[in-house]
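User: Sequence recovery, please. Input:
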């Protein structure tokens, strides 16, 4: 695994160097609106630690941080009324997964019926 890049855009957002539209923050997670929303509600949730990907997070984060992160995801889904009608949770990972930003994050997409699970090539 390559080293964590401290200059990636989400690291800079976490340090407050780049603004974001925050919707939730606690000791484990920061959540904000995606700059290019793909659905009426498109929120990114990122852990506060330096984790590159889903694999890195699952392998190296303390259990408390993993639990805290997913409790935040659940809370945000409920806060935005997504749990009633459903939503999609996506974690693009690595090159084949189309991950652009090398800081682990999940996309919460909802507010309408989300289309095909996998599209494009
Ligand atoms: P990925 O492809 O890595 O899973 O998704 C990265 C996401 O970050 C994209 O949906 C992109 O629109 C979003 N993004 C990239 N730069 C910024 C930024 O500066 N601010 C916000 N709020 N979102 C960003």
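Assistant: Recovered sequence (121 residues):
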């Amino acid at each position: 695994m390559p080293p964590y890049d401290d200059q990636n855009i989400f690291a800079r957002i976490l340090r407050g160097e780049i603004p974001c539209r925050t919707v939730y923050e606690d000791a484990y997670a920061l959540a904000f609106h995606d700059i290019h929303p793909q659905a009426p509600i498109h929120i990114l949730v990122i852990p506060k630690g330096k984790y590159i990907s889903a694999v890195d997070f699952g392998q190296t984060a303390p259990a408390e941080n993993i639990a805290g992160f997913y409790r935040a995801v659940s809370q945000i889904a409920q806060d935005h009324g997504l749990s009633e009608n459903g939503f999609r949770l996506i974690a693009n990972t690595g090159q084949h997964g189309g991950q652009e930003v090398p800081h682990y994050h999940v996309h919460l997409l909802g507010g309408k019926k989300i289309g095909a699970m996998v599209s494009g090539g």
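Residues 9-110 form a domain with the HIT family, subunit A fold (CATH 3.30.428.10).
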